Amino acid sequence: MRQKTELEITLHAGTTGEAPSADAEGTEARAAKTELESRAAVGPSMEAIVERVNLKKALARVKRNKGASGLDGMTIDELVPYLKEHWPRIRAQLLDGSYKPQPVRRVEIPKASGGKRPLGIPTVLDRFIQQAVMQVLQADWDRTFSAHSYGFRPQRSAHQAVARAQELIASGHDVVVDIDLEKFFDRVNHDILMGLVAKRVTDKRVLKLIRGFLTTGGLADGLVGPTEEGTPQGGPLSPLLSNLMLDVLDKELETRGLNFVRYADDCNIYVRSQRAGARVMAGVEGFLTRRLKLKVNKAKSAVARPSKRKFLGFSFMTGKQPRRRIAPQSLAQFRSRVRELTRRTRGNSLAQIVKGLSVYLTGWRGYFGFCETPSVLRELDQWTRRRLRAIAWKQWKRGSTRFAELRRRGVGRDLAAQSAGSPHGPWRLSNSPALAIALPNAFFVSLRLASVAVRPEPSSIEPPCTDPYARWCGRGRPRG
């Protein structure tokens, strides 16, 4: 409690703001000289960013999000002690416009669709400052954004975007112009973006700080290289800046009277015919190139029926009332991930495998449970349990052990002997009547295996078995 109070006092300490340097004014004046510039009369200030309540909220968010260390190696746990000692100096630098962000640590993470996605991981201190900036800017900007934009906005979600797309399809707009921006986050033009920021922010210190976050550079392969374009993914400010950039597209589409849904850089426009879709695609591609210097990925963009395309992991079934379904690509990714988590060569106990697997299944169900095809979810549950039965069969190894385990779980003598002596492999046997009896669905419930088809009430789940191969609750002595 004492540490928290001292930190609050430290975050509040400091002097009032000073006038920004002439160099800062010149830098941002040049950045704002674009065709999109129109100076804001008023806007967020640095004083609002370093205000104590805003900083407390930013610190709580950064701690909750956790995340890896940046270039300096500082961890989340080390941030609070660091701020207690150094915040007055950092606050003074922010207020006089002299604060300089550190380079980001560049890494690549696998994409669900294949390939790799570049990330720029800022230091935890810069993440804290970015979060504080983002909160003030978002509070001022969000109300001006398009109602068709759903990504990275308060009280909006991917599910809402999918539901809105479904409404447009049901209204007869059953052709989608699916636009994929080629490496959007890597190719945002800094001058255009800063021109848009300058339309909403007059404080030169804030403009200089934002440009600093954009151009600070990053470390990769032991070398720090400059960042001449793009908004590095990995920082709290990047999603808001991407929404600001693409709000120009939103306003253009609204002016043209088009029906569309956008989530971050994923934009779907819904029209009534293939011919109209081709015309819209050509027009939007030209607008993005001329106005925002962005490029449409023609290989991944298309004009097609919604049932043939994927939007935020979902697709839609044809008919007068189109139903949400999980896109085939998303189902393939699910199976691939579950196979990885249930490899029979992992060497873990069944209880350990179920524990790790359930974390993934719970998160997956929280998102894709929004589909309207429950039979697909039930099939995935059945397939997952079969994977686990195959693990159990392999772990029992010898025929004598398998026979004994089957008998102990209530399988008749003849069926147990036939199954234990079978020449077939674990996957084939995992679908056998013997294992269905020995390891029924209730057994996996007792292990607290998460279900993607059903959300059981917490009170209905018994404590997990300490011995995963013990007789599951309620079963009597072996039969036969």
Structural description of this entry:
With 480 residues, the chain is an alpha+beta fold. It is built from 20 helices and ten strands. The chain has helices at 2-12, 22-31, 46-49, 52-65, 76-96, 124-141, 158-170, 184-187, 190-198, 204-215, 238-255, 274-292, 328-341, 350-368, 374-396, 399-408, 413-420, 426-429, 433-438, 441-446, and strands at 104-110, 116-121, 175-180, 218-220, 223-225, 259-263, 266-271, 302-304, 314-316, 324-326. The strands form three sheets. The protein has a four-stranded mixed beta sheet with strand order 2-1-4-5, with no helix packed on it. A four-stranded antiparallel beta sheet has the order 6-7-3-8, with helices on both faces. Helix 11 packs across helix 12 and helix 16 (399-408) runs antiparallel to helix 17. It is globular, with a radius of gyration of 28 Å. The relative contact order is 0.09. Residues 15-41, 222-226 and 458-480 have low confidence and may be disordered.
